[in-house]
Write a structure and sequence with these properties.
Layout: E1 12-16, H1 28-33, H2 38-48, H3 52-56, H4 69-90, E2 98-103, H5 107-115, H6 120-135, E3 141-142, E4 157-158, E5 160-166, H7 170-177, E6 184-191, E7 194-200, H8 201-213, E8 218-221, H9 234-247, E9 258-260, E10 265-267, H10 272-279, H11 286-295, E11 300-303, H12 309-320, E12 327-330, H13 334-347
Parallel strand pairs: 1-2, 1-11, 11-12
Antiparallel strand pairs: 3-4, 5-7, 5-8, 6-7, 9-10
Helix pairs in contact: 2-4, 2-6, 4-5, 4-6, 5-6, 6-9, 9-10, 11-12
Length: 348
């Protein structure tokens, strides 16, 4: 077991959450006491074409929109970037202490912003396009894949979804999904007993019922009405790649190490476009990514953005790998931000 290196440099992992971590009014308590950061939402609103603050504040009952793909993605990105900059600008977070930065799915965009791959506005443009593009296929998905294993003679239009399978194992899940080889896929390896499946809604639900008869404790639909991280997103990923090529000739050099949780490796700036394109069709390998960070001596994990999902996953992975020195922090509330700020002040 690596010895406790709390006082050493390069032991912090920054983690950025993805779609599904959104919640009504997320970040408002922080913004009301740090209102200089509202300009990030003003910039995002201008790029997106709608007033996003109204959604966070539930003005005219617009808060319900936060669970729609196009809104949740841009808002999670904005809130995550705000909290990132608060930590670096106001809380003594030192880049020299950061071992790596990684995101979970959409969180890759916030992570890349944190690393300096692009400025906030350019990231908002990417996420705004990505969210609207993905929303265009959610609920009315057209499979136009040329892969014969995914394409039948009819043009299919079906609802898509993702669901978390709790309390099962990869062998059982793979065996059940072999009966749905063209319609349901493993999308996220989140921890040892939580795997997310993705695909056409009717088959995801059927597979979920089979998994429960095979011992899964629960199968929970996610707050995501798309089939991300699977081959059904191939056409979308290609369109995203075209957009990135047209709008970003070159990503900036990274100021901190960016670690891709789909590639399970560190990524240089010249690889970013291809990684973001492949990300939509490749599964998130969160367990492998956190295990690698732990094996390289990381012991402090900071979740930057709404929710505490990633922190919970890290805790369970740390227990399994017998790492008792691991600490996790989140930015999901004023109190938790205060605890994190105190830790960073003591560290500096």
């Amino acid at each position: 077991m690596p010895e406790n290196n709390k006082g050493n440099k390069k032991n912090i992992i920054l983690m950025f959450p993805g779609q599904g971590s959104q919640s009504a009014g997320m970040g408002l308590d922080f913004l009301e006491t740090n209102n200089k950061y509202f300009n990030y939402l003003d910039t995002s609103s201008s790029i997106f074409g709608e007033n996003l603050v109204d959604i966070l504040k539930n003005k005219d009952e617009k808060g319900i929109l936060i669970d729609r793909t196009q809104y949740s993605q841009i808002l999670i990105y904005a809130v995550s970037a705000i909290l990132n900059d608060y930590l670096f600008n106001d809380c003594n977070l030192n880049p020299a202490d950061v071992k790596a930065v990684l995101g979970h799915s959409l969180g890759d965009y916030s992570a890349l912003y944190s690393c300096g791959a692009f400025d906030f506005a350019k990231g908002a443009e990417l996420v705004s396009f990505r969210g609207k593009l993905m929303a265009g296929v959610s609920g009315n998905f057209k499979d136009s894949s040329q892969d014969s294993n995914l394409h039948d003679s009819r043009q299919r239009q079906k609802e898509t979804m993702m669901a978390a399978v709790l309390g099962s194992d990869i062998g059982t899940i793979s065996e059940v999904l072999s009966n749905y080889s063209s319609s349901v896929f493993i999308a996220n390896y989140n921890d040892y007993s939580q795997i997310v499946i993705s695909g056409y809604a009717d088959d995801v639900l059927k597979a979920g019922e089979e998994l429960k008869t095979r011992g899964a404790k629960r199968v929970l639909p996610l707050k995501v009405n798309i089939a991300s991280h699977c081959p059904l997103m191939r056409e979308v990923s290609e369109e995203l790649g075209v957009f990135i090529e047209k709008n970003i000739s070159k990503f900036d050099e990274l100021k901190m190490d960016f670690f891709s949780s789909t590639e399970v490796s560190k990524i240089s700036s010249d690889m970013i476009r291809d990684v973001l394109v492949r990300q939509l069709t490749n599964p998130v390998k969160w367990v492998d990514s956190i295990e690698k960070a732990l094996s390289e001596g990381a012991n402090t994990f900071i979740e930057v953005g709404p929710g505490k999902v990633l922190s919970g996953l890290v805790k369970r992975i740390a227990v399994r790998t017998e790492r008792e020195d691991v600490e996790t922090y989140s930015t999901d509330s004023i109190e938790e931000i205060g605890n994190l700020k105190k830790y960073l002040e003591e560290k500096s």
